[in-house]
Amino acid sequence: MINTREIRLVSRPEGEPSAENFALVETTLPDPGPGEVAVHNLAMSVDPYMRGRMNDTPSYAPPWELDQAALGAAVGEVTASGSDRVGVGSLVLHGLGWREDAVLAADQVVLLPRREDVAPSRYLGALGMPGRTAYAGLFRVAAFRPGDTVFVSAAAGAVGSMVGQLARLAGASRVIGSAGSKAKVDHLINDLGFDAAFDYHDGPAAELLARAAPDGIDVYFDNVGGDQLQAAIGAMKLHGRIAVCGMISQYNATAPTPGPSNLALFIGRRITMTGFLVADHDDLADEFASKVGGWLADGSIVAEETVVDGLDHAVQAFIGLLRGQNTGKMIISL
């Protein structure tokens, strides 16, 4: 038997989540049976999409069950195995985060390479789902072309920071980002190589974007929705493309939020806007790993992480993520 701890969802939030929606619980797991593995988690991910899983509503990811452990990506080490494929000591990626240990079927884990130059947490960020989301969204969904002017919202986050750097490396003529503080704006320009950035608190998004991109934009990678989506539509050039990855400005809304009022621009400017999920683009996995892995190794891409220590602090880290308190990928070290 394995004595461990996990975080459970005990109530569903109205608006912004709070610590009272969760409980940290001691529990006991069985030893793995045939075809199963026990994993001690080294790091777990908290991501904006998880806010939707707290609601009991249909979505692309099933809702978390009340009084059950929350779910999400984690990287860990196999401590016991009933599988010939996954041995003890293997480094694995799996979907039973929000807990210190997990027992699951061996076919539900992904074997990861152990590399001295790659921290395990990278497989939750730049080399994991956020990085693949940025890659698929920019190059396939938004159909990026060298010379494009690219605008990305929430640009200091796990996905947005990758989008901007990928666009720069692929030959964008100008890369613009929005973020929520002066420190993040400085980070985008000085550390990540953005050409321009603005703090969305500093004024109307349309005015801030117009100053940063006076000639308009070809691509908008949307993580936010709201005023920034409307501003991006207004700045779109002919045949502009919008990849819709997230709408974090709406995740805690308790009533319907108004949509953009300038949708008529789609007609004359022949704008395309496409929502997407990274799971629809698994065929890009090898290409992504090769290119982005190389850029990380040679320092062409900076992968910032905000690391919070301990399962005890995971809930506050998740709430902080939704408030924009992270730079880069938010990671819980276990």
UniProtKB/TrEMBL annotation:
Domain of life: Bacteria
Pfam families, alphabetized: ADH_N_2, ADH_zinc_N
Keyword hit for Oxidoreductase: yes
The entry's keywords: Oxidoreductase
Record's keyword annotation contains Isomerase: no
GO MF, any single term: oxidoreductase activity, acting on the CH-CH group of donors, NAD or NADP as acceptor
Domain named Enoyl reductase (ER): residues: 18-332
Name the UniProt record assigns to this protein: Enoyl reductase (ER) domain-containing protein
Annotated organism of origin: Microlunatus soli
